[in-house]
Amino acid sequence: MARAKVAGDKAAGPSEHRQAGEASEIRERIREAIETEPIVLFMKGTPDRVACGNSGRALEALRAVGAQVATIDVLPDPRIRRELTALSGWPTIPQVFVRGELIGGADIVQELAASGGLEAKLDEKLGGEWRNGGAEHTIPLGAPANPFRIAPG
Question: Over the range 44-82, which residues count as b (16 or more CB within 10 Å of their CB) and which as e?
């Protein structure tokens, strides 16, 4: 039986190498967001256009305690979800990270918010800075490339 080509194989073509490089780039951008954003929510959709009830519940739980959150939409590119799951070991979306630590998904974040544990966790990880944070913002990540784009000449 023939073995499938992978990006590291010498027989892999330019397309496989490009895809592997793009996946690595996406993984690094995810890692950077997790490490640099005080609170980041990987969700389906955006705060203005939530595309999943669980993502909406996680976002509302964070908003309910006054957390200023950075969001990343996992829907524009399937590699975002794949690379995020590989990094976090958590298979479902949404995923909430606080100062680089995975807190959990919608159920966990909602339960923490209801019990006061979310504010305690934010205080523990961020001190008081999360209460005075900036505006909620969305980080664009990995929008699919348009193969029909005309390159500038």
Answer: bbbbeebebebbbbbbebbeebebbbbbbbbbebebbbe
Domain holding 87: CATH number? 3.40.30.10
Predicted confidence (pLDDT) per residue in 28-69, tens digit: 999 999 999 999 999 999 999 999 999 999 999 999 999 989
Range of the domain at 127: 17-138
72-97 pLDDT tens trace? 999 999 999 999 999 999 999 999 99
Per the domain annotation, does 23 fall within a domain?
yes
Tell me whether residue 5 is in a domain.
no
